[in-house]
Amino acid sequence: MREHDPRSSTPHGETPYSPTSLLRALTANPYDVEALREDEHPAAEAAPPDTTAMRGLTLVLALLLGFAVAVSVIDLRREASAEDSPRAVLEQEVRETREEAEQLEARQEELEARIADAQGEVLADDDTERSERLESIEGVGPGAALAGPGVVLVLEDSAPLPPSPGTTDSTVNRVTDGDVQLAVNGLWAAGAEAVAVNGERLTSTSAIRTAGSAILVDFRPLSPPYRITALGDAQALREGVEAGEGGAYLEEISTRFGIRVSWEQGEELTVPARTAGTLREASAPEDQDRGTPAPVTAPTPAAEGGSEEENP
Question: How far is 17 from 23, CA to CA, in rounded Å?
Answer without folding.
Answer: 10
